[in-house]
Amino acid sequence: MAQAKAVAKFWITTTDLLDHVLKHEKRIQLAEPTKDGRIVHRLVSDLFCRYVQLCRSLERCYDQTLQAQKRAVIQQLLEAGQARMLELRTKLQEIELSEFVYVDGALQEQHLIPDDVLAVRPCYFPARRPDELQALLDAQKLPAFIEPGSDAEDGSSSDESEQPEEEQVPVGKGINRPVVKRDRRKERLQAALNLITAHERARQARVRQTNFRLHPDRYYPKPIDEEIVDVPYEFFYRPGQFMLYPLKRTVYNWDFRMKKKDVVHFAYYAPPGWEEQTVRVASVRWPDAKELALKQQAEEEAAAELAQVEAAKRLEEALERIRLNRAAAKIQRYWRKFNALKAQKKHRFDRSKFLGLFDDYEPKLGDALAVAEVRAARRARQPEFDRSFVAAIADEKARILRIRGPALLEDITDFVRAWFREWYDETLAFDLIPEPFQGGTVLIVRGETLTPLEYLALERQKQLDKLKTPEQKKKEADAMKAAKEREQEKKQEEKARLKELAREKRARERKEGKTYDFTEPEFMTNAYLTLEETLARYRKDWAFVNELDNLQDLPIMEWITLDKFAEVHQELHAEVHELLKSERELLQMALCKDERMKYKPPKPKKPPRAKGAKGKKRKEPIDPTADLSVESILNELVERNVLKTCRKRTFEDYIGDFNYAAFERRNRLEQDPPPGMGEVRTILQSYLYGMGPLAAPKPKSLCLVGPPGYGKTLLLEAICNETGSTLFDLSVDTCGPVEPNNMAYFLQLVLRAARLLQPSVLAIEGVHRAFYKKVPQPEQPLDPAKLGKHLFKLIVKQLKPEDKVLLVGTCDQPWVAKVGPLKKCFDKILLLPRPDYGSTVLLWQYALRRFPTVPRDLDLSALAKVTTGYSAGQILECARQVLNIRRRMQFGRKPLQVDELLDHFLAGTTPQYPIADKEYEKFVKWHRKVDKLAKQRAKVMRERQLLAEQMAAKAAGAKK
């Protein structure tokens, strides 16, 4: 209940916000026409920011609203709001002559941040297909779009994604070894397991040996009365036993314990080979005076030698103490230095953290996950309320038919029969009942048919026309023809006048600049009018409905009753039509018989042709896939390796920052700054609004251009994953086995399957290969040009605005392709920018923080400054190769240094460098040829530069 009440209150707030935005737009429409593009940019960007906020609120209401009737109103508002938001973005693109727009001025005025106006993933993504189609698609075993373990061009493959490879080693001429499949991931895991096992066994052996040494009474066994044989340790091989290389071998048996056991001191025990010997008693002889003197002299000499030895020993001990003191002082000095360096490092870390130089915040996702779960649970209940609403409609219709149906039938027939009587009484005739396509008996009830007086006037005019002479008739026909010709001439003159005015306006705009009038249709579009009408109708219909009282989100039965009553009334009119038509014929036959007239049955009227279908009917093209079932189409595409699965990627995986200085440089310094990588992510998300169940404008085709490693494949997979689209691989390699004669059938088959399984993405990797100027010799067997011949006619041209199908191509060598056909096939062509400093910092943070033990205070600023320009693929691959498992194990004693990451780029066998400016300039020049806005902006920048040079030259001449 609380949640329903909160959603109702939020919807009331959103309607107030919508009313505020519409009033603000009305105030803008009162502005005077102007030629200043900066004023128009300021007004339109301000309105664009407001519509972004409005669409986010409407989207949340649509996501959490369970009441079906109110959700239908919100859906109309959301569709119109998104269309209006995209129209304003298009207008900003026309003003700035660029696909990337900057609204920093409006953000400052409204106190917003750039994240508040970014395109976000809509709540209705990923789109849901019918259950039977989804089950049929899930039953297929589809290959991967990018094979795991292959070097993807975005360089984001990890150690866990590597798969077994195949190796084939030549043995001799014409003889090859069989292909050996190696599971490298399994081998690495086994090696790591063996290493951990060896360390653990060695540790246990050291613990046992220490226990035997320190606690012999507890761990040594008691002696036994048997011969102990000292068995030396010998290494022997056991199958399945892993050697402890490169560790020092440890003896695991208990023999080493007895080597330190003194068994002699045990009572009643003799070691093997030991015999007890008798002590001989020598005879005692007393020494004489000479011997005593010699003995005394020897003792004195011994005492002197002993004193000398003691002195030397004391000197040696003093020297040893001095050496130990010096060693202790050295250790203490280095220890104090280490502590000081550690304290300084911690102080620097705390200061950098306080200043926000790096993000050490670990958010608690518990609350956010709880909110997401509650919203998802409420969103999951929408189908249940939809089914209840449909059931209520069916029940109400059945009730009306059962209770009011017979009475309605009698009322309709009585009214038409009364109409027959009125006509007979006044004209003695019976008018024809209108056909169902004209309105049927409904027109009779409404009184919109011909009245008897009008009928008599027409009959009188017919009689007078019969009395006219041929000359009079010819004169009237000539007059009517002349009037018609004059009317046609007036229309042609008006058309020519409008055409001339448009030509003069274009010429005046080229000469003086465009004048922006906020009351013209380019500003007051259908989306704006739809918003106004829908909001006014909502407030009129829901004025007497208290939404806070309907916390159960039950449908409003009064509206259902009115709608179903009108529908039942229409259906009953159709049922009564044939009966009353037969009665009218019987009455007409009786009248003719009474008047002795010949009865002429009325000619059946045919429904008019559709508007615009003049002349010969257009022959529809024959569809060769019309007789195929969905199962057969899917099976054929799976056999041809067209249907594929992609990795779970999102737009957040495309790491990149925004160009925060672009607004100042473009609008105040009149420069042409390159966009940031984050802006590519935003504009791609805005292109995908039309891929969901709601109606929104979207391009038919999109081409991503950039050097290798810039994330083109990642963005393609993110598009598929975010929208829940089915991926169709139409690359040259996939279409290679298709015969040129069957290429049209193949593309029609793909298009029909894409429409059945929509939303769908038709992916073409390396699309330049389909439009080669000159096909390389190795690719001639594939005949890549056969795809480019039919791509526009059979795919792009056949796509309708309501189709949830998008053609996406990637290209890394656009200059080798024909410009005209490639430009014709793609509505939008985006050039992916080079990573700037901000994007490089984010890339290093993402690449390094995937490993938890990497220090947070690593100097990423200097690293990003040095590596600015390296592609995202190169940076991610560098982090993956440098921070392998062996290097991460050494973090405790050998911290990571920035030099190690730089050495990977520069100290390898083949040093890696970022793309050169000259090489990237080739992409920029090619993009200016094919992109209309880029071409116009380049022209404007050249004119500004020429004007600046002329002004500088003029100022220099004036100084002289």
Automatic annotation (TrEMBL):
Region of interest called Disordered, as start-end residue ranges on this chain: 147-177, 467-512, 597-622
Biased composition (Acidic residues): 150-168
Lineage: Eukaryota, Metazoa, Ecdysozoa, Arthropoda, Hexapoda
Protein name: AAA+ ATPase domain-containing protein
InterPro entries given in the database record: AAA+_ATPase, ATPase_AAA_core, N-DRC_Component, P-loop_NTPase
A GO term, aspect molecular function: ATP binding
Biased composition (Basic residues): 599-619
Keywords assigned by UniProt, alphabetized: Coiled coil
Occurrences of domain AAA+ ATPase (ranges): 698-836
SMART domains found in the cross-reference section: AAA (SM00382)
Coiled-coil residues: 292-332
